[in-house]
Amino acid sequence: MAKRAAHRGPSTTAVHAGEEPDPRSGAVNVPVQQSTTFWFPQLPDGGKAPYIYSRYENPSLESVERKLAALEGADHALVFASGMAAIQAACTSQLKPKDTLVVQRGVYGGTTAYLNDDLAPTGVKLVQGPAVDAPRVPKGTKLVWMESITNPLLRVADVPAWADAAHDAGALLAVDATFATPLMQRPLALGADIAMHSATKYLNGHADVTAGALSFGKALRDGLWKRRRNLGAVLDPHAASLVGRGMKTLALRVERHCANAWALAQSCEDLKGIDAVHYPGLPSHPDHKTARRWRSSARG
Fold it and tell me: Which residues are known catalytic residues?
């Protein structure tokens, strides 16, 4: 089974990863474990209890996290109650007062508000980088934050160049890849240390769940897990099951999204009275070549 799973394409991975059949019933869909507490420290049959409390870990969340990690090519993933909760965990796990954070110009307004209104007052120094070109990262910087496709103007930065700039300064690179999804870009394969998603958007895909997610390597797991545990921004098990359900159709939806966006962008570009069309798939977009180059990272 493991050998076959290693050769799954992304669409099959989105359906089957993290979805092992229930050992007791044989159910092919993961049960929703709505329980807040579990038998601990051992099960009634004497076996070691793997769970204690749903704010720490829950099997319904872990199923979705394994699915996302498989899609991202990551060692681990964690799901959160919102995209902003994921951003907060990523930042606070790495930054202390007097530390420096370099942030890309033009990122999501909610991210900007959090950094300015909540993080900066703790003593974290914010340095604004460019919208596209790799930034000059001061030595000793702890974290660089960027969006692979900015929200809402759809500028496309070169993730490997940003990763090199961050790592040369001793910093980690976190990439908000919400607009790209793991089907179009895998930031970790391009050199990033953390990939973030507002799972509210394409991962869920049905406009009925607010959720966030982080994917990352082994070295970051304990720190990020502790931030989620201590801050309490964990996703509800039923909401997690809806995200997992949505991810099963991710490949089909992304394909249609891209086809529709391409057709709409071409039509709008040909209409009189429209000053600009912000779509990286158009050759007229200033970041078109960069978008074509990193698109291949999701095929690995």
Answer: 55, 108, 176, 201
Domain ranges of the chain: 2-17+58-247, 258-299
What pLDDT, in 10s, does the model give residues 236-259?
A: 999 999 999 999 999 999 999 999
Contact (CB, 8 A) for 285 and 291? yes
Can you say whether the dihedral through the CA atoms of 284, 289, 294, 298 is positive or negative? positive
* Element (DSSP H or E) covering residue 227: helix 221-231
Asked whether 118 and 157 are in contact (CB, 8 A), the reply is no
Tell the CATH topology of 2-17+58-247: Aspartate Aminotransferase; domain 2 (3.40.640)
CA–CA distance, 166 with 174 (Å, rounded to integer) = 10
Residue whose structure tokens are 């709505």: 34
pTM: 0.92
Quick check: 295 pLDDT over 80?
no
